[in-house]
Amino acid sequence: MSMPLERKNFTYKDYLQWPYDVRCEIIDGVVYNMTPAPSRIHQELLLAIATRFSNYLEDKSCKVYPAPFDVRLPKGSEKEQDIDTVVEPDIVVVCDPSKLDDRGCKGAPDLIVEILSPSTSRKDVKTKFTLYERSGVKEYWIVYPSEQIVHVYKLDDNGKYANSEVYTKEDDVKVGIFEDLTIRLQEVFKSL
Fold first, then answer.
1. Residue 120, CB-side half-sphere exposure with 13 Å CA sphere
2. Do residues 29 and 84 lie in contact, with contact meaning Cβ atoms separated by under 8 Å?
3. Domain formed by 37-69+86-188, architecture
């Protein structure tokens, strides 16, 4: 199916009517096509990071979800069908069970991880950065596979991602939303 990208103001109602094999996101009513098939490296990193979160969260109330997993980000009290932002982050951690339903997450997750691909890097670094900050995602990780680094952004008291912390493959990342979780990047990047 050819997506009518020239039209704007798409909504979740439109999104639900598209064929299952159409991979796209809607941000502020604009459709963004996604990479049809992520690379092997992308998938290895996704699995390595998601597994570490999953193991930590095994007996806790927070949940981790790897892509594909829809996150609907309403701007206010609009009806479900009128939400104009639906994204599919690589990894999502949600600690408020009231945000979860059979379709995914409605509202800001606590933590999002995006693993850059050449075709999505601009969107992940600029468009989604602004979106996640505006939506109140407490912690946003951007993983750069070829450089083997991770940028971690945390919301400050003013609701802004003021500064990033940059971690290399030799570093351990202290996960900000949890008091006692540290992820060793050497283990995450070991397959590269």
1. 27
2. yes
3. Alpha-Beta Complex (3.90)
